């Protein structure tokens, strides 16, 4: 049996310790979430749409605006957030058990499965219950502190991880990422249907890779068409949050471990992510106000 499988078995045994442990963890989760104003759940219907890049740049953009931000990467099998932010090493433990988020800067802290592994190439051989347990621990066992935003990067699709996030954080605001081409839009319809069945709060839809910015003349080319995300949002009566072009600079920024929204150069993708961050912040605030009015 591999070391990972042994760890899984050990954690599973602890989870069987009874309802008291579950109740205690529920209390810790509630206490943690009470200190976070807005929870943004970034998801997509399929892979390859740049969801993690959107999540990272959204979190960095919000932090750049002066908000206190946490970024929680719940992609257990393929975490990419630490690489996109240039973060290395494992998480620190304080007060005997609480994990400390990795600090990207003063306003942005990050937790990812990648930061819990001793070997970056180690495979995670976990099924549903273990993934559910890990995601809950990312909240209950992490000292997030007082935050304005917690951005949650989820793997694509509608499997265990998205379901766990929505059950654990029922007031999460979902940000759905798509690309303009039809195959992505078809999967996004399924994702929206999933969110509606789960009675989730849908903040809006983002169209990524919305045209290609030529690295030579800086003109925009409709490589994957354009506008499909906006049209889908309108047809589904979902707010459209913005569009981000496919910019070669974003690839370079990801390899450098610096979000393109924080690059010094004036780039089309940088401006797009800055607009998206401001739009999402305003939409989240308006969403909370709407809920407050309805509750009166």
UniProtKB/TrEMBL annotation:
Record GO cellular component, one term: cytosol
Keywords linked to the UniProt accession: ATP-binding, Hydrolase, Iron, Iron-sulfur, Metal-binding, Nucleotide-binding
Residue spans crossing the bilayer: none
PROSITE patterns recorded: MRP
Amino-acid positions noted as binding ATP in the UniProt annotation, renumbered to this chain: 45-52
GO molecular function: ATP binding; ATP hydrolysis activity; ATP-dependent FeS chaperone activity; iron-sulfur cluster binding; metal ion binding
Database matches in Pfam families: ParA (PF10609)
Keyword flag Isomerase: no
GO biological process terms on file: iron-sulfur cluster assembly
Keyword Lyase belongs to the record: no
InterPro entries membership: Mrp-like_CS (IPR000808), Mrp/NBP35_ATP-bd (IPR019591), P-loop_NTPase (IPR027417), YlxH/NBP35 (IPR033756)
Function according to Swiss-Prot or TrEMBL: Binds and transfers iron-sulfur (Fe-S) clusters to target apoproteins. Can hydrolyze ATP.
Subunit field text: Homodimer.
Family the UniProt entry places it in: Belongs to the Mrp/NBP35 ATP-binding proteins family.
Name this polypeptide is given: Iron-sulfur cluster carrier protein
Organism: Desulfohalobium retbaense (strain ATCC 49708 / DSM 5692 / JCM 16813 / HR100)
Lineage: Bacteria, Pseudomonadati, Thermodesulfobacteriota, Desulfovibrionia, Desulfovibrionales
């Amino acid at each position: 049996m591999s070391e990972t499988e042994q760890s899984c078995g050990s954690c599973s045994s602890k989870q069987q310790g009874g309802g008291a442990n579950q109740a205690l963890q529920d209390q810790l989760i509630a206490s943690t979430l009470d200190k976070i104003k807005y929870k943004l759940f970034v998801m997509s219907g399929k892979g390859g749409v740049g969801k993690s890049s959107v999540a990272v740049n959204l979190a960095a953009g919000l932090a750049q605006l002066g908000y206190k931000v946490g970024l929680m990467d719940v992609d257990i099998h393929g975490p990419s957030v630490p690489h996109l932010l240039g973060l290395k090493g494992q998480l620190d433990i304080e007060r005997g058990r609480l994990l400390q988020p990795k600090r990207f800067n003063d306003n942005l802290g990050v937790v990812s499965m990648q930061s819990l592994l001793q070997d970056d190439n180690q495979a995670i051989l976990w099924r549903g219950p273990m993934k559910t347990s890990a995601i809950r621990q990312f909240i209950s066992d992490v000292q997030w502190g007082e935050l304005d935003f917690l951005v949650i990067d989820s793997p694509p699709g509608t499997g265990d991880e998205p379901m766990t996030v929505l059950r654990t954080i029922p007031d999460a605001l979902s940000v759905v990422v798509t690309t303009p081409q039809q195959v992505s839009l078809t999967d996004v319809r399924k994702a929206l249907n999933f969110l509606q069945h789960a009675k989730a709060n849908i903040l809006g839809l983002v169209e990524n890779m919305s045209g290609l910015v030529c690295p030579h003349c800086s003109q925009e080319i409709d490589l994957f068409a354009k506008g499909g995300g906006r049209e889908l949002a309108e047809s589904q009566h979902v707010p459209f949050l913005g569009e981000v072009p496919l910019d070669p600079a974003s690839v370079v920024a990801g390899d450098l471990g610096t979000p393109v929204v924080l690059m010094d150069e004036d780039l089309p993708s940088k401006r797009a992510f800055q607009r998206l961050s401001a739009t999402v912040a305003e939409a989240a605030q308006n969403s909370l106000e709407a809920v407050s009015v309805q509750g009166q």
